[in-house]
Amino acid sequence: MDGGERKPQVSQYGSVDPAPPKPTGAIEEWTAVLCNEAEPMFQRMRAVFSLRNQRTDAACLALCEGFSSNSALLRHEIAYVLGQMQNPVALPTLTERLEDVSEHVMVRHEAAEAMGAIGDRSVVETLKRYTNDPLPEVAESCVVALDLLAWVAGSEFETTEW
User: Fold this and answer.
1) What's the sign of the alpha-carbon dihedral 71, 73, 76, 77?
2) φ, ψ for residue 101, nearest 5 deg
3) 1-35 pLDDT tens trace
4) Phi, psi of 158 (to 5 degrees)
5) Which of 1, 43, 137, 143 is the most buried (most CB within 10 A)?
């Protein structure tokens, strides 16, 4: 790269994040930035990835606080990273996002996929209820999440026996 350009780094989750995590800080500091509507979106996204990289229950719950944001983009990214974290403490909040029909479709879709990625079968009935959602993005994401849960449990893909 020329002129001091930075190359995007692959995260510990194998993804290239749209904003780099901050190298230092604390959960409380990152949560404050995440939840502050006056902060630039880039800084709020940095807080998302900083919290994700902590891999703790406290960081996971701090991310869940971010669902109060006015930004559907940010809420979608939070659901995505909660799926990466695979921490079951996020399941009640992800379930709320999926069940909230006034929530943006992309947030609902990402919440469903995150629920499947976490791998906890306690969400099977909830996901099944939304496989017939009128929004195909939500319905199909629930099917994908259920198939992932079945696969994790040792079953085959594309099963209707969730």
Assistant:
1) negative
2) -70, -10
3) 455 676 667 666 667 677 889 888 999 999 999 99
4) 50, 45
5) 143
Minimal CA–CA distance to 82: which of 121, 56, 44, 43? Answer: 56
What are the Cα distances from residue 17, in Å, to 59, 84, 139? 17, 12, 27
Which parts of the chain fold into alpha helices (H)?
27-35, 41-54, 57-65, 72-85, 91-99, 105-118, 124-129, 136-152
Indicate the DSSP class of residue 157.
Answer: S
The tokens describing 44, both together, are 């709020």
The structural domains of the chain, with segments of one domain joined by +, span 27-152
Contact 144/110 with Cβ under 8 angstroms? no
Which is nearest to 112 in space by CA: 138, 135, 89, 134? 138
Question: What angle (nearest 5°) sits at the alpha carbon of residue 83, between those of residues 122 and 109?
Answer: 85
Q: Which structure tokens are listed for 22?
A: 């901050």
CB 12 within 8 A of CB 50: no
Q: pLDDT tens, 118-143?
A: 999 999 999 999 999 999 999 999 99
The residue assigned the tokens 């996901």 is 127
Homologous superfamily (CATH) of 27-152 is: Leucine-rich Repeat Variant (1.25.10.10)
